[in-house]
From TrEMBL:
Domain Glucose-methanol-choline oxidoreductase N-terminal: 2-194
Keyword Ribosomal protein: no
Organism superkingdom: Eukaryota
Protein family per UniProt: Belongs to the GMC oxidoreductase family.
InterPro entries: FAD/NAD-bd_sf, GMC_OxRdtase, GMC_OxRdtase_N
Gene3D superfamilies: 3.30.410.40, FAD/NAD(P)-binding domain
One MF annotation (Gene Ontology) recorded for this entry: flavin adenine dinucleotide binding
Species for this entry: Geodia barretti (Barrett's horny sponge)
Known cofactor(s): FAD
Descriptive protein name: Uncharacterized GMC-type oxidoreductase in thcA 5'region
């Protein structure tokens, strides 16, 4: 999706190696899963699944299952169906970024972690980011960098870009911000990402296609999908 919008460095093929470097999958070893990364991935055995998904799997065993629902991995080319969710909590401990990345690297001389610091804007030398302007304890100061990684979430990331002069020119002018790049998409088109479950019971005589694959509708005539942006 990102590549289709113009960022040709974010194709599926380009970003897959980084996802593989990130994890060590204890169950699956193929071209789509990592084997020596800092974040472990584990799955519950189907004997411990809740009754409904476990029943679906059991009723579809054999050489001729009535539904094509078996899904070996949810992070692969064919993620649809019923299968275990990979989790990063072996032994009940969630393997956070702090545990898997920060703790092993605390001894590095080129690593500094500071709390109570708010980044006000990204600084640029021409078209290249060269650091940030930050504030702490009422003091404003600059931090220089060869590379700036912006990872502030779906709200604060575009907010920082706009404070730095990257965004819709009309909005930036309204707040007295000098325009570095007129990019109308920044700070716009935000969508929610809910998880919703829908249950149904078919009437007698209603037939569905024998598949639950994500890329195909299981219904003969799928209902229209309504979407709206978040507020």
């Amino acid at each position: 999706m990102w590549a289709s919008w113009g960022n040709d460095r974010w194709t599926y093929t380009d970003v897959l190696p980084y996802f593989r470097k990130m994890e060590t999958d204890g169950d699956i070893h193929d071209d789509f899963h990592g084997t020596d990364g800092p974040v472990p991935a584990v799955r519950r055995h189907n004997e411990t699944w809740p009754p409904i998904p476990r029943g679906l799997v059991y009723t579809n065993r054999g050489p001729r299952p009535c539904l094509d629902i078996r899904c070996r991995t949810l992070n692969g080319p064919e993620p649809g169906g019923v299968g275990p969710i990979p989790m990063n909590n072996p032994g009940g401990v969630r393997m956070s970024t702090a545990l898997t990345h920060l703790s092993p690297g605390r001894h590095r001389l080129n690593l500094t972690v500071r709390g109570g610091v708010v980044v006000r804007r990204i600084r640029f030398d021409g078209q290249r980011a060269c650091g940030v302007e930050a504030e702490s304890g009422g003091q404003v100061f600059n931090i220089d960098a060869d590379r700036v990684v912006l990872s502030s979430g779906g709200i604060k990331s575009p907010h920082l870009l706009m404070l730095s002069g990257i965004g819709p020119a009309e909005s930036l002018h309204r707040y007295g911000i000098d325009v570095l790049v007129d990019q109308p998409a920044v700070g716009q088109n935000l969508w929610n990402h809910p998880i919703a479950s829908v249950g149904l019971r078919a009437r007698d005589g209603v037939r569905c296609r024998p598949t639950l694959r994500a890329r195909e509708s299981p219904c003969v005539t799928p209902p229209p999908v309504r979407t709206r942006p978040t507020t």
